[in-house]
C-alpha cells in the first residue's frame, strides 16, 4: 500500500469496483476490538463517563457536556459554525429559485441546477463529518464511553419562501447525518451511542426540573416568557442562570441516567424440588375433579377439524318463511287460535299472545300474513 496503516488495523482482500466509466481498487481495513458493554451495565460503575450532545440549528451546531455516572459535570464544549453554514446554504437555494423562475416549466425527470445542488450536498456532508469527528474526539479526550443524543425524528420545516423552507429542511437532514456519522465513528473508538426522549429538553431546568425562561441579553435581568432560540436561560423556581443549550445537554444526560437506573419489579425466586409444598396442601386444581364421566362434548378428531360432531344449524335469510306459512295454516284451523290472532290484530292485548299447543307463536305468524 502507498501509506502505512495505524496501529491495530490490518488490510483485507482488495476488490475492483466500477465507478461510472472508471475502475477503482478498494482495499478494506479491519480492526479487532472488544465490544463495549450495554448502557445499563456501564452506568452501574461510578467511574463511567457519558457525553451528552444537544444539536441545534443556530450558531452552535452542537453543545457537548461530559458527565459522570453520579451526575457530576466534568467539561463542556461549544461547536460553532451554524450561522455560516446556514447562510451559505440559503444563498445557494436562492440562486436555484431564481434560475427556476427564469427557466419556467421543466421536462419530466430533467435535472436542473446540478452544480448548485452538488455544492449544497457537499457542504452538508463536510459539516456533518467535521462536527461528528469533533464530538467523538472530545468524548475520547475526556474518556467518555457513551454518547447520548436526542431522538429527533418528526421535525418540520418553517413556513416561508422556498429558500427558507428548503434551508430548514436540509438543516434537519444535516442533524441526522451528524448522529449517523458520530455513531459509527464512536463505535470505531470503542464507544456506544444512545438516544433519549426529546420532550421539553430545552424547557426543563437541569437543577430543579421546572420550566425555564429563555431570553436574550437585551431583555433585562428578569425577563418573562419563552423565546425560542434565545441563548440564555433562567429558572424562576431555583434561580439558575446559564446558557440554554448547555442546560439542555445536562437534561439529556440526566434522562439517560434515569432510564438506566430504573429497575423493574424483582421476580419471585424459583423454589427448589425440596422446597415445594405437597399437592394435597394446596387448592384442588381443575384436573383433580372426581367426575368419572367424559366431557360434555366429544373431542374434535382428525387434526382438530371437528369432523364427527353434529354440524351446527346455520341460519340463512328467508329460511323461516315456508315453515311459518305451513304452521300458520295448521294453526288457523283451530277456532281458538283464530280468536287469539284476531285479538292480536285489533290490539286488544297489550302483550304478545302466548305459545299455543302447536308450538308456534301467533304474533310471529301475523307478520307472514
UniProtKB/TrEMBL annotation:
<feature type="region of interest" description="Disordered">
    <location>
        <begin position="257"/>
        <end position="313"/>
    </location>
</feature>
<protein>
    <recommendedName>
        <fullName>Cas12f1-like TNB domain-containing protein</fullName>
    </recommendedName>
</protein>
<feature type="domain" description="Cas12f1-like TNB">
    <location>
        <begin position="178"/>
        <end position="252"/>
    </location>
</feature>
<feature type="compositionally biased region" description="Basic residues">
    <location>
        <begin position="295"/>
        <end position="305"/>
    </location>
</feature>
<dbReference type="InterPro" id="IPR010095">
    <property type="entry name" value="Cas12f1-like_TNB"/>
</dbReference>
<dbReference type="Pfam" id="PF07282">
    <property type="entry name" value="Cas12f1-like_TNB"/>
</dbReference>
<keyword id="KW-0238">DNA-binding</keyword>
<dbReference type="GO" id="GO:0003677">
    <property type="term" value="F:DNA binding"/>
</dbReference>
Amino acid at each position: 500500500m502507498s501509506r502505512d496503516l495505524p496501529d491495530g488495523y490490518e488490510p483485507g482482500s482488495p476488490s475492483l469496483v466500477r465507478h461510472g466509466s472508471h475502475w477503482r481498487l478498494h482495499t478494506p481495513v479491519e480492526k479487532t476490538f472488544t465490544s463495549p458493554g450495554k448502557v445499563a451495565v456501564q452506568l452501574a460503575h461510578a467511574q463511567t463517563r457519558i457525553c451528552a450532545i444537544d444539536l441545534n440549528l443556530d450558531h452552535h451546531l452542537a453543545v457537548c457536556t461530559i458527565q459522570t455516572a453520579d451526575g457530576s459535570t466534568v467539561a463542556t464544549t461549544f461547536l460553532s459554525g451554524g450561522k455560516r453554514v446556514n447562510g451559505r446554504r440559503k444563498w445557494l437555494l436562492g440562486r436555484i429559485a431564481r434560475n427556476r423562475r427564469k427557466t419556467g416549466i421543466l421536462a419530466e425527470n430533467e435535472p436542473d441546477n446540478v452544480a448548485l445542488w452538488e455544492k449544497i450536498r457537499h457542504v452538508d456532508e463536510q459539516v456533518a463529518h467535521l462536527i461528528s469527528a469533533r464530538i467523538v474526539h472530545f468524548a475520547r479526550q475526556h474518556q467518555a464511553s457513551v454518547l447520548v443524543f436526542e431522538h429527533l425524528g418528526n421535525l418540520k420545516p418553517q413556513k416561508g419562501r422556498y429558500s427558507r423552507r428548503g434551508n430548514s429542511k436540509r438543516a434537519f437532514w444535516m442533524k441526522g447525518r451528524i448522529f449517523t456519522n458520530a455513531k459509527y465513528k464512536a463505535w470505531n473508538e470503542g464507544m456506544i451511542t444512545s438516544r433519549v426522549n426529546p420532550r421539553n429538553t430545552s424547557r426543563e431546568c437541569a437543577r430543579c426540573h421546572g420550566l425555564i425562561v429563555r431570553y436574550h441579553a437585551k431583555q433585562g435581568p428578569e425577563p418573562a416568557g419563552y423565546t425560542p432560540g434565545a441563548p440564555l436561560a433562567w429558572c424562576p423556581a431555583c434561580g439558575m442562570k446559564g446558557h440554554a443549550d448547555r442546560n439542555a445537554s445536562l437534561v439529556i444526560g440526566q434522562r439517560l441516567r434515569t432510564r438506566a437506573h430504573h429497575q423493574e419489579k424483582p421476580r419471585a425466586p424459583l423454589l427448589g424440588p425440596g422446597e415445594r409444598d405437597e399437592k394435597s396442601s394446596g387448592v384442588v386444581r381443575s384436573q383433580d375433579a372426581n367426575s368419572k364421566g367424559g366431557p360434555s362434548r366429544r373431542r374434535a378428531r382428525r387434526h382438530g377439524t371437528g369432523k364427527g360432531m353434529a354440524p351446527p344449524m346455520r341460519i340463512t335469510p328467508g329460511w323461516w318463511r315456508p315453515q311459518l306459512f305451513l304452521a300458520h295454516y295448521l294453526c288457523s284451523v283451530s277456532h281458538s287460535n283464530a280468536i287469539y290472532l284476531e285479538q292480536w290484530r285489533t290490539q286488544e292485548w297489550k302483550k304478545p299472545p302466548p305459545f299455543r299447543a302447536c308450538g308456534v307463536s301467533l304474533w310471529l305468524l301475523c307478520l307472514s300474513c
